[in-house]
Amino acid sequence: RCGFVAIVGRPNVGKSTLLNHLIGLKLSITSRKAQTTRHRITGVLTEADAQVVFVDTPGFQTRHRNALNQAMNRNVTTTLADVDVILLVVEAGRWGPDDEAVLKLIPPDRPALLVINKIDLMADRAQLLPFIERIAAQRDFAAIVPVSAQKGQQLDGLLKAVKPLL
Ligand code: GDP
Ligand code: MG
């Protein structure tokens, strides 16, 4: 199996950290500052049963409509039109208008996975289910996978969910 997988989400949810840990290299740039990833950055994962090209994207911005942000938003839209599978990355327990804006960009006919990142920061796991239900009510997801990109938790589960969609 092989194919292209886009990683999208609002700034700071951990998209670049996820790419880094998925392919095991410090390829994409991570930082606390939004906008670090101005361009698309790709990472190739080669395993016995699959070759996956992950495409990191800049965080989609809705609030600041300057030229750079508009260019980055176009980049996200173009990437989404091109890939086989989309990973919508959100932060556990945090859902806002910027997340909603990214969700709306995902083509309705494209397989998408909901990746709930930073579960290591979620003190009360009982809040996870209502959080997921709120997002899943807005779109069908092929799978919903809670992960910690930073700690490398559940990334194998994420890959397992991605592969059949390629
Ligand atoms: P991006 O803007 O979506 O690409 O986000 P980054 O990958 O640059 O990460 C933003 C911040 O969140 C960085 O300080 C990361 O170290 C942090 N981060 C990313 N993933 C996790 C995670 O699973 N757990 C925790 N606690 N922090 C994370
Ligand atoms: Mg980034």
Q: Quickly give the CATH architecture.
A: 3-Layer(aba) Sandwich
This entry's quaternary arrangement is single chain
Query: How are helices and strands ordered from N to C?
Result: EHEEHEHEHEH
Order of strands across the biggest sheet?
A: 2-3-1-4-5-6
State the end-to-end CA separation: 6 Å
**Which spans have pLDDT < 50 for at least 5 consecutive residues?**
none
Number of strands: 6
Looking at CATH, the homologous superfamily is P-loop containing nucleotide triphosphate hydrolases
Per the principal axes of the C-alpha atoms, what is the gross shape?
Answer: globular
Secondary-structure-derived class: alpha/beta
Q: Which percent range fits the helix content?
A: 25-40%
Question: Which CATH first-tier class would you pick?
Answer: Alpha Beta
Stated plainly, the CATH topology is called Rossmann fold
Biggest sheet statistics: 6 strands, mixed
Ligands (ions, cofactors included):
guanosine-5'-diphosphate, magnesium ion
Query: How many helical stretches?
Result: 5
Proportion of residues in extended strands: 15-25%
Number of domains: 1
Query: What is the residue-averaged pLDDT?
Result: 88
Radius of gyration: 15 Å
Function: An essential GTPase that binds both GDP and GTP, with rapid nucleotide exchange. Plays a role in 16S rRNA processing and 30S ribosomal subunit biogenesis and possibly also in cell cycle regulation and energy metabolism.
Protein name: GTPase Era
Organism: Chitiniphilus eburneus
Keywords: Cell membrane, Cytoplasm, GTP-binding, Membrane, Nucleotide-binding, Ribosome biogenesis, RNA-binding, rRNA-binding
